[in-house]
Structure formats: C-alpha cells, structure tokens
Design a protein that fits this description.
This protein has nine helices and four strands, in the order H-H-H-E-H-E-H-E-H-E-H-H-H. By secondary structure, the chain is α/β, with parallel strands linked by helices. Strand 3, helix 6 and strand 4 form a beta-alpha-beta unit. The protein is globular. The two termini are 26 Å apart.
C-alpha cells in the first residue's frame, strides 16, 4: 500500500515546524482520517489494508493527570471493570508526587494489576534518568514518554547501564528514542 500523497505533502510542508505540539497533532489527525477513508473505501479493516491480520490485544485503563486521590479512584474503577493493566499520566512537579500517585494506585488496585506510567514527553534526558531510577522499585511494567529526541544515541548507553531498562519485565523507556537509537 502506498502512503497517501496528501500525507507526504503535509509532512513536507510542516517539516520545519517539527512533529511536536499542535502541528504534530494536526498532521496525525489528518493521517488517521485519510487512512480511515482509504480502508473504508476498500471496505476492509485498516489492519487488513496494511497487510496484517487482526488478533486479540490486551486493553488497559487510562488514568489522567488526576493527582493522588483522583488517580487511585480511577485506577480502582478500571480494576473493578476488569482491566488487568492501568496506565497513568505522571510528570508532577516533583518525583515524590509521581511516587505518591503510583503508590496510591497500587494500594487501590493491589499487586495483580499491572501499572504503567506515561510522562507524555515532558522529561529531558537528565530528568528521565533521575525519575526513572526513583521508580525502579515500584513494580511498574512500562515507563513511557521520555523525550530523548530522534537523533540522540545516548539511550543505548542508558539502556545498557540502568536496571529499569535491562530488567526482564516489559519495560520501555522512551520508545521513540529507543526505536531510533537501535
């Protein structure tokens, strides 16, 4: 399947503005809409259009940037609804606040529910290292959303040195950065 021409034009036109912020959101919205139209026109699912086959996936409940009590309450609602995993937005002013939110969620849902966190690209390299080390002992299954940038190679060194990236559990640190650094 050829990438729709309109998306190539959008990508080229907004290249200097970069993929982040409102520009990225707008281009992503156009991207999704065009692929949806192409799939609907072909009367197939998008996964089929792209040459793959559908398979069941585990879903997780999402928790917003809701503070300690709000995050714990939302996590508990998702657990009661049958979710086996919960992902929370974090990146509070202090790492202690991040820890307080994670611990409140863990207390609310118990140890059988996987907890994931997403910093939503709000951390630079130094903050990512500091905060992710502080989260090492919290039993998280996924750390996402650190902003390493696409051209930086240091995530390979970070991955090799730090336990949270080398553990046997499914932990990812800045999937964009790791994808581009491999």
């Amino acid at each position: 399947m050829q990438y729709p021409t309109t998306l190539n034009v959008c990508s080229q036109r907004f290249r200097l503005l970069g993929p982040q912020g409102l520009t990225g959101i707008a281009v992503a919205a156009v991207d999704m809409a065009i692929w949806d139209v192409v799939a609907r026109t072909a009367q197939v699912s998008l996964v089929t259009l792209l040459g793959a086959s559908s398979r069941p996936l585990r879903a997780y409940g999402g928790v917003g940037y809701d503070g300690v009590r709000g995050s714990a309450d939302a996590a508990e609602r998702w657990a009661r609804a049958g979710m086996s995993g919960i992902k929370a937005k974090i990146g509070y002013p202090s790492v202690q606040e991040d820890l307080d939110v994670i611990r409140a969620m863990r207390s609310a849902v118990g140890n059988d529910i996987e907890i994931m966190v997403d910093y939503n690209q709000c951390l630079n390299a130094v903050e990512a290292r500091t905060r992710l080390r502080a989260l090492d002992d919290e039993g998280l299954c996924w750390n996402r959303g650190t902003d390493y940038g696409t051209r930086l190679r240091w995530p390979q060194r970070l991955r090799a040195r730090d336990a949270h990236t080398a553990s046997g559990r499914r932990k990812l640190v800045g999937t964009g950065g790791l994808r581009h650094s491999d």
